[in-house]
Amino acid sequence: MAQPQPDDSNVSLAVVAIGRNEGDRLRVCLQSALASGVARCVVYVDSGSTDGSVAMATGLGCEVVPLDMSVPFTAARARNAGLARARERLPGLTHVQFVDGDCELVADWMPRALQFLNAHPAVAVVCGRRRERFPERSIYNDLCDREWNTPVGEAKACGGDALFRAEALAQVDGYRDDLIAGEEPELCVRLRARGWKVWRLDAEMTRHDAAILRFAQWWTRTKRGGYAFAQGAALHGAPPERHWVVETRRALLWGAALPLVILLAALVAGPVALWALAIYPLQWLRVTVNHRSAREGLFLMLSKFAEASGALKYYANALSGRRGRLIEYK
After folding, report:
1. What is the rounded CA–CA span in Å between residue 319 and residue 6?
2. Contacts of residue 88, Cβ cutoff 8 Å, sequence gap at least 6
3. What is the number of alpha carbons within 13 Å of residue 240 lying toward its C-beta?
4. pTM, whole model, 2 decimals?
5. Is residue 307 part of a domain?
């Protein structure tokens, strides 16, 4: 089947991939970008790989940007560095596709995304369906695949894989370098404040290899999400946006406040107060009914404890004036 072609022959598109020690996954990622027939430049931003990623990317013909690792790493900083190199190589850059180095771009994604942007000038960024490549390998991979199945249509945010208008990125000065998580939704908040729209297309976009095989990895990833909630709410929590305010409050209520209140009540009134912990299995039943999955309901319930720990970590850093360090799960 022939791939859809963008209407605008003046499109100048770059792909920016970021990664560290992704091995064969990076090779697949870069080859999918190079084979697209749409990208005029493929930039790989490396954050201290020791597995030969830089040499491999160079050998494929990609522009390589070794990130200065003396400065604390963030994905946001890596993407900005890749965007800057793309603009150097393509002074007339019109679009940029960001992709994580453990993802493969679906063959017809970028032409379809460009077609949509050509037809909708108010849209700054489009994303599609990111799928987990190996959902059967662990419940955690499967949960990621479910998480990425977001509603089609106008959206509040995109993820790490998305195709942007370069003009829109320039208007808001790109990503915030200092964010260790949640940098894409924060960027979308600023884009929407400038009148741009974000759109989720009903189209396959990328195949991702999460490689989350242990509970500890899932916990750390979820903790990072809680950190992002709290920081996002601190940045853009005021009306009318109320960015991640509800998510932060929900995590703190179920993951920190209620357990603390029940514990204090038990110290005062005795062990009988621990019966209040029954609220958690009841909440699990409610979530299970809503999501039609006991397993997913259980992890959504557990996630509140991990998210609360991440939110509290953000508040501790903010109070002490410390800069957040990357929370890595693999």
Report:
1. 49
2. none
3. 2
4. 0.91
5. yes
